[in-house]
Amino acid sequence: MSAIETLVEFAPVFVVFPVMAYIIKMALNHSTRKHLIEKGLVGDEAAKLFKTDSETFLPSSLKWGLVLTFVGVVIVILQILPTYVSSEVYFGVMLIAAGAAMLIYYGLASMKAKEEEKKKIE
Hints:
Layout: H1 3-39, H2 44-49, H3 54-80, H4 87-121
């Protein structure tokens, strides 16, 4: 079985599950909004619960982008090496790269938090 045939077998999984998750999310959001309206909570308080701007998702995307990039670079580098590298070393170096990416993300996030704090004070 070729790689394309294997991918074709798993493709529905990558289509069906995200679509199902999106439908469930929309149904739950509708139900929550309906309950909020019944309770009389409308306006800015309710709008904050369903806020979906880029500022909410950007830090998470940056974090996982850094982690996956660092791990990917490590995998490529270890594959290019002319010597045999054991699976334990692969796993260890990938964890170190993921940890380094998380530390870089922490530094960037703390710098951003300090900037936001300065803006609030001014």
